[in-house]
Specification:
- 7% of the residues lie in helices and 21% in strands.
- The protein is mainly beta.
- It has a three-stranded antiparallel β-sheet with strand order 3-9-8, with no helix packed on it. A three-stranded antiparallel β-sheet has the order 4-6-5. The chain has a two-stranded antiparallel sheet with strand order 1-2.
- It is globular, with a radius of gyration of 15 Å.
Amino acid sequence: MESMYPMKSNVQSRPGSGHSKRAQGNGEQGGWHDATRRDSSPPHTQPRPATGGRRIQVRRSGVHGKGVYSLREIARGETIIEYTGERITWKEALRRHPHDLNDPDHTFYFHIDDRHVIDANVGGNAARWINHACRPNCESDIVDGRVYIKALRRVRPGEELFYDYGLAIDERYTPKVKKQFECRCGSRGCRRTMLAPKR
């Protein structure tokens, strides 16, 4: 995966880091996803991406590697795409890690719960290329174990889609660790890291 950075879940530690993963939980950035995700939808009401032609496109990103761009206006609250891939256990995710020996912190894992993760490296779609931003225009929403990317505001044609990975690891956030998970979004108020603030 050539996605933006290394993890995508936002509440886990990196595989092989020697730290246990914590509960919480892409695109092109990779790794463990999930700090800003919500799981608030009523059961059995899985959102469906709107139909009516192609709405997004994967192409090179000015932020990192590949990115996902809107081809038409997307309304606030609209479900854009489901984050797909193989649903596996954390034990299996750790066994598969790393996807790329040259970039071991970069994966397409999206943390669903304490036991499961989606590996978009297997059967994944364009959602795995959505990059991180500290002031995103999208968010992830977990409904019945499935992950959907929804618009936080109106998205204009040609805009790159982003959501806040909100990565979380158990180890202390040293300058070296923050640099390892550096954010390149360039937005006003950028945290300079994809890691979620410690609570």
